[in-house]
Amino acid sequence: EVKLVESGGGSVQPGGSLRLSCTASGFTFDDNDMAWYRQAPGNECELVSIRSGDGNTDAADSVAGRIIVSLDNNKNTVYLQMNDLKPEDTAVYFCAAERPRGFRTSTPQRCYNDYAGLFQYWGQGTQVTVSS
C-alpha cells in the first residue's frame, strides 16, 4: 500500500523555523517527482516546492530563500525546512508524489490547481500556524 505521512507541523512565532517531514511507504522518492503544497483557510492550494526525481528543486516566489527541501533516502523521507516564518505561511501543508511507473493506485487528492494533477499520491496534511 502506498502511503504518504506528513509530520512536523505546529505553532511558531514569526521569524521561527519548522521542519516538515513527508515519509513514504510502498515506493521510493528518489526516482519520482514530489511536491509540497499548502492551503490556507478560504484559499486555493498553493504549490510551495517541487522536487524532481533527479534532485532538482524549485520553490514558489512566496517562500524562495526561506525553504530547503532535502531527501533522506535511508528513511525515504523528504523534508521541508522552513525558516523566517511569516503569518502568511499559516496553512495546512500537504506532500504529494508522482505515481511510479507500473503503479496503478492513487490516494485522495488534496489539491486541484497548480499542477496538482501531476501527483497521484497525497498525504493527509500537517497544520502550520505562525502567530505572535
* Overall 3D form: globular
Structural class estimated from helices and strands: mainly beta
Distance between the termini: 40 Å
Q: Tell me the series of helices and strands, N- to C-terminal.
A: EEEEEEEEEEE
Total beta strand runs:
11
* Tally of contiguous helical segments: 0
Describe the biggest sheet? 7 strands, mixed
The proportion of residues forming helix, as a percent range, comes to: under 10%
Fraction of residues in β-strands = 35-45%
Mean pLDDT figure: 95
Radius of gyration: 14 Å
Low-confidence region ranges: none
What would you say this structure looks like, in words?
By secondary structure, this protein is mainly beta. Helices cover 0% and strands 44% of the residues. It is built from no helices and eleven strands. Strands 2, 4, 5, 6, 9, 10 and 11 form a seven-stranded mixed sheet that branches.
